[in-house]
Protein 1
Amino acid sequence: MSLLHHLANSSPGRRATYAVPSKTAMNPLSPKKLLLTKWTAVKPIAKQKHFLVSKVIVPEPPNEKIEFVEIEAVYTKKVSLIAWRDLTNSELWIQGWQ
């Protein structure tokens, strides 16, 4: 059934709901594009929730895959090194500041 057909035949007082894919499903993360992206820790780290990717660590030699990024706590400016793939774990990180 097409969306137009569904909308035309739905009850006037009833709203249709649709599932929207998550951002990460639509736009998979690329380590090269993480610089200056904003992240929220699901569980605060040293009482900090909001972080910014401040540096993408380019490996030696440069033709190797990127494995790590530096994240900076927005409030305290403390820097930590993490595996960039950890940012894809929704139990640890949420993209953007929540």
Protein 2
Amino acid sequence: MTDLDAPYHAHIYYNPAERDIAVALRDDFGRDAAILFVGAMTDAAAGPHPIAQYEVHFLKSHRDAVVAAITATGLRALVHPLTDDDLADHTTLAQWIREPVELDVTVLDPPGVNQGIPRFGVSDF
């Protein structure tokens, strides 16, 4: 696997007033052939994410385009690689778009064991 083939996730956060914007962005990602997976909108806390969010999966080669699309909406998001260190993925290796959300890192996998893909029932990488 080359560096540009490295798997990435983006978690797009929204509040009730932003939900329509989040839906439109999610629809756009669903039409983008470079997006490997678009998750369901979760209107409540899920995993380490304490507020409503959904995720998209893509390769590093598409990272700049994903960040630009999210930034253009004004939504906040967490963009991170998918490595064997779930904690680092969501903290030190992550990029926040707009203000960060305090994650519940106690539910993340320990270093060396990242069940990120199986946990979501998707195997796209």
Protein 3
Amino acid sequence: MDLLSLRYFQAVARHQHISRAAEELRVAQPSVSRTIIRLESELGVSLFDRQGRRIRLNERGAAFLRRIERALAELDDARREMSDAAGSGPGRVAVAAETLVQLAEVLAAFRERRPGVRVRLVQAPVDAMRRHLRSAEVDFALASQPLAGPGLCSVELAREEVLLAVPPAHPLAGRERVALAELAGEEFVSTRPGHWQRALLDRLFAREGLVPRVVFEGDDAAATPELIGAGLGIGLLPAVARRTLGDRSPVAWLRLDAADCHRTLTLVWREDAYLSPAAQDFRRLAGERLMPGAS
């Protein structure tokens, strides 16, 4: 069992697809297939269930992946730590986030402080963030919904109210507040399941024994105000969107009479991860720039 075989297995497990894994690894597909078959033969178990050309990680493969990801993450951390000790370059910082707009000010300050450091950004929903952290693909995750688990550390950076946005001609547009029960028959514009806006919407409605009528869902949260303004539905948006849009806002804003109607921005990292000096600077700057009242 060599390191290359484990890297191949990790890529195939992530994609559940030989061709896409081969593209990521930049090798020929037959090479990946042979490596996986050889690894399974060496272990004496199948790691994937196969049906025609389709493969799916099975229970044994999932258990093997959890251990392999920890081992490979430790190796990657060790390599970065030795590279920093040798002074072989400015290094890199990798961050996963559901939406990247919150990082603009942090990244501007970080580049000024660490001009040579490579910054890699990954846009991902919360479940993918957990995988990225576990495999050490990223140093940090900036999550807008709970992201917890064994071996993870976090710090709350900001908490802001989430508002209801409606088209200007909507009957609710003249109101200041609305109860959640009044929205039972409304059509919503939201993000896909897994993103924080959708998770909050589903959670608030479930608390009232209701299910929201989502008529449009997508991955581009930044387009939500325009879609609502065009009359496609109503939706939940963070208060920062109201401040950012200002007089250009295409929607009318209301407060929701619902407990816990807010977004919590949290920075998360692996408890046992090696954090380079550059990564530690990024963590400090995130606290300075995103925490309310921080200097």
